[in-house]
Design a protein that fits this description.
- About 25% of the residues are buried.
- The protein is about 30% helix and about 30% strand.
- The strands form three sheets. It has a six-stranded antiparallel sheet with strand order 4-5-6-9-8-7. It has a two-stranded antiparallel ribbon with strand order 1-2.
- It folds into two domains: about 70 residues, Arc Repressor Mutant, subunit A (Orthogonal Bundle); about 160 residues, Chorismate lyase (3-Layer(aba) Sandwich).
- By secondary structure, it is α+β, with helices and mostly antiparallel strands.
- The longest helix is centred in the first third of the chain and has 14 residues.
- The N terminus and C terminus are likely disordered.
- It is built from nine helices and ten strands.
- Helix 2 crosses helix 4 and helix 3 crosses helix 4.
- The N and C termini lie far apart (about 55 Å).
Length: about 240
């Protein structure tokens, strides 16, 4: 029996059993795993212990439970780095995915007070504004709401952002000398739910970023990502962080 041969706590042993099958590739992303009753029979554990293990794996994002259907291996979440500026197109490509973009708005408009403050310009000054949805393999992954200082990127609105991302253009155009990040979790509004194809109860990660080139503020962007499809993290040398 499992209780006689495997170390405690028992629920962690069951979690490791499931994770070993996932991490080894025996259970592929999206595959249905054995039911709790089946795991009880395989491992000789109690139903309550198995239920706790599977429930914790669901909270940790490793499996997805669908009531009345079963439990499935969760699709891995792409990870965005917090202290680097990278194009979402590059992130998707490096994962082997195909990036596409739906441009909803692309225009020049008067800067609101908050946008003007963020870009260090006078209110009602002309500012470039793009609003778009990035997709990976056809699935919505991120809303990008970006304002750009026309003085530093005068040709910005002439670009086809279905072919090049705003980040790629700005990174090619100017050296980035300073960045500011603010990240928060919140529920999406109705428009964001529709664009990201998520339910109103699903939390989102919102990353707000400003960047500078020398003494000029280049851009202020807000990126909204479904919490079930995205996480944020990174690993850096301490020496790198002391200069950021």
């Amino acid at each position: 029996m499992l209780q006689d041969t495997w170390p405690k706590p028992l629920y962690q042993t069951i979690k490791n059993y499931v994770l070993d099958h996932i991490d080894s590739g025996k259970w592929k992303s999206g595959a249905r795993i054995p039911s709790e009753s089946e795991i009880v029979k395989i491992l000789g554990a109690s139903r309550m212990t198995v239920n706790r293990a599977i429930r914790e794996l669901s909270v940790e994002g490793r499996v997805t439970r669908i009531q009345g259907v079963g439990t499935f291996v969760a699709e891995p979440k792409p990870k965005a780095t917090l202290l680097e500026i990278r194009s979402i197109g590059e992130e998707i490509s490096q994962r082997g995915g195909i990036h596409s973009c739906r441009v909803i708005l692309q225009r020049s408009e008067p800067a609101s007070k908050s946008v003007a403050t963020a870009l260090n310009m006078a209110p009602n000054s002309p500012v470039f504004h793009v609003y778009m949805v990035h997709r990976e393999n056809g699935r919505p992954m991120q809303i990008e709401d970006r304002y750009v200082n026309p003085a530093v990127a005068p040709e910005f609105l002439d670009l086809d952002f279905t072919q090049i991302t705003p980040s790629d253009h700005l990174l090619d155009l100017l050296p980035v000398t300073e960045i500011e990040h603010k990240i928060s979790s919140r529920l999406a509004d109705k428009q964001e739910c529709d664009l990201l194809q998520i339910s109103p109860s699903e939390p989102c990660l919102e990353l707000c970023r400003r960047s500078w080139s020398g003494n000029r503020t280049v851009t202020h962007v807000r990126m909204v990502n479904p919490g079930s499809k995205y996480n944020v993290g990174g690993r850096f040398h301490v020496s790198d962080m002391t200069h950021s």
